[in-house]
Amino acid sequence: MPQVKLLDVTKHYGKVTAVDHLSLTIEDQEMVTLLGPSGCGKTTTLRCIAGFIVPDAGHIFIGDQDVTYVPPERRDIGFVFQNFALWPHMTVYQNLAFGLRLRRLRRDEIKARVHETLALVRMTGLEDRYPRQLSGGQQQRVALARALVLHPRVLLLDEPLSNLDAKLREEMRFEIRELQRKLKITAVYVTHDQAEALVLSDRIAILNRGHIEQIGTPQEIYQRPKSQFVASFVGLCSFVEGYVEGTSAERVLVRTEDGLAIEVIAEGLSQGQAVTLALRPESVEVLWTKPAHNKNVFPAELTRFAYLGETLDCWLKVGKWDIRAHLPVPQIQTLSSQLWVQLNPERIIVIPH
Predict the structure, then answer these.
(1) DSSP strand E in 44-84: where?
(2) What residues contact residue 211 under an 8 Å CB cut-off, 6+ apart?
(3) Is 102 in a helix, a strand, or coil?
(4) Is 217 helix (H, G, I), strand (E, B) or coil?
(5) What average pLDDT does this structure show over 57-76?
């Protein structure tokens, strides 16, 4: 049975539609990430699941219970806030014990649960510290522990790593994922960071203007985006517009308006159909001399590049199109303005109009 189910959930703020007839099913023990730009409705959706916001229409189920109008404290959820939201006048122990006392658990059971949960998040021995005495990473672990100590049916996380530095964010991603799998808990995670979504998720739901643009595994979202919005939001992408000039088995010839003939591998396309080709950097090979064959090989002009440590992020002008490619840093010595690119037909993403 699904642990969380949203049916046609809609939420308006005046004339603005924050969530637009959104339906989503999250299975037991699954980690689903709501990913999208600011204002796409991901946090509103999460807060509707939590009960902090009541939708204007639709229904929300946790397990087999319709909780659309059930208050948050009766939904059996744990919530991790973006700003940690720890009680500053309480110690770590007291922050974790607070919710358990409200549930009228016995003192010995509270103590056992608190110590067990602190051990899970590697915070044993810091029970008597106050939030101000903790680092950002330690505060995040306490916020996570406070949600987990309730043994919730569903864990909700609202951009919990956005206030941490890059190195700590990367470390915490793996810790959260490991905990979720170890505890076998259903989780819904909100972020605008695509790397977090790819690392953490069983499935990713890409939100755009209050509705789900696409939902799938990280591999499906990255390798087979269904729209230009999804392709541009997850990973680097360059776009080329054209139409289908010819088809042969799985091979399709796409002609751009400026005359480039690009061969791709795709199915279900018809002659004359307009398409967008999405090119990831890994689908573009940069060459210093023209190869013997001409298939998917085009002259390119290097317009600029950025040093990224191990790689160079290059901008190339191919026909009228701007295309991104990555090169190993040692090749910076041999870069010239005039180059060639070869496009891998197996890695070109075809998005039909």
Answers:
(1) 57-62, 65-66, 77-80
(2) 19, 20, 21, 22, 41
(3) helix
(4) coil
(5) 95
